[in-house]
Amino acid sequence: MELLIVSGLSGAGKSVSMNALEDIGYFCMDNIPAWLLPKIVAFSRAGDSQLDRVAISMDVRGCRTREEIREALAQLDLQQTPYKILFLDASDEVLCRRYKETRRRHPISQAEDIPTTEALAREREILQPLLDRADYVIDSTLLSTAQNKERICDLFLPGGGAKAAMRLNVMSFGFKFGLPGEADLVLDVRCLPNPFYVPGLKHKTGMDQEVVDYVMQFAESRELLKRIEYLLDYAIPLYVKEGKSELTIAVGCTGGKHRSITFARKIAEYCERLGYAVSIQHRDAAR
Question: Please, what is the average pLDDT of the chain?
Answer without folding.
Answer: 89
